[in-house]
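Journal club prep, notes for RB
We'll compare a predicted complex against what the paper describes. Inputs for the zinc ion case:
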Amino acid sequence: MPMNKNIYLTSLYFAFAFETTTAIAHQNDQAITFPDQIPQAQGDYVAASKVETLKPGQKVDNLFDLQFDDKQATIQKLGNNTYWIGVNYYNTTVIVDDNAGVMLIDPLGSERVDTVLKAIKQITDKPITAMVYSHYHLDHVGGAKQVSDYVEQHQTEPLRIYSSAAVYEKILRHSKKDDNNQIKAKVPLPTNVIKLDRAKTIKFGQQKIRMIVPKGAGHTPDNTLIWVKNDKVVHFADMINPDQLPFYNFAGAEDFHGYEEDLKWLLKKGIKGQWQYVNGGHGNIGSIDDVKSLLGYLDDLRREVNKQLEIAPYEPKLSDRNHFIWVKRWQDTIAAGVKEALEPKYGNMYGFDSGAVETHAIMVLFDIVDH
Ligand SMILES: [Zn+2]
């Protein structure tokens, strides 16, 4: 891609300009190790800090390098009591209350949880007394057993585990029973199961933690939005990767229409001033502008898919002794056209050449032709 070539040339330019500095080795490393890396987007970037609160709209600087070391967590304070912790572009939310201790929202997967636990130690020596599962996907909660083991070994205070009834049921559905008919779940079962037919609040010391299931069930039907009211932080896993294009298939959005609905609802709440920071479980720390940009991306996708449909209309045909093989060829043609059309606007974003855009175009395509 011409874009990547430009970046490589930029790196070379820096190499010549500052040959003797270590920054250069670093620039060259990036050019060689991560040929698809692109410069971060324009914006207000500041060095990560566990002491200084991030201003709304600001982002953590140089996240790309920080996140490609799985032994190192990036910690950023949000508001007075809330912390964003990222490891390998997987993010958790931690709340520290003087009296109640530490609440960990999504411990992350088993490969990353030890780094998360070390990061919490860097923030506070208060005990971990609460853990919340946002939804039952193991990349966000698979490390929960390690957290409960850690708590048992290192503290006298017990650990409460909160989840919605929907998360609890999903954990059970994916569990086995042993010979004694005991449930063998992959994560510790929640101790505090909350029926979220309407939003409910958990009081955690001085903190009010609001658990909400937005109507669209955009990522999964069990996905819970967790709103840290005092600090105006929302944890809404797998809905947005601020600074980056969405993951493949919009992170497996089970209902694309609902996904967009939930994003619009999230934006509305932000505009009302209810939240200022969003932790999407991935990417950088987000703001209202990031939700707007993502909705704009969806509009752009839809417009370009519709244009492609005029060039390559929906025309089922029998071929190759098969009645559906045409679909694959058709959707790939449309996706390639959409990607080409979006390159001028989105080509410099993280993930543009990963194949993700094509999966997004295909999801939008089927949302259009199926409904
Ligand atoms: Zn998920």
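Talking point for the session: Residues 1-35 have pLDDT under 50 and may be disordered.
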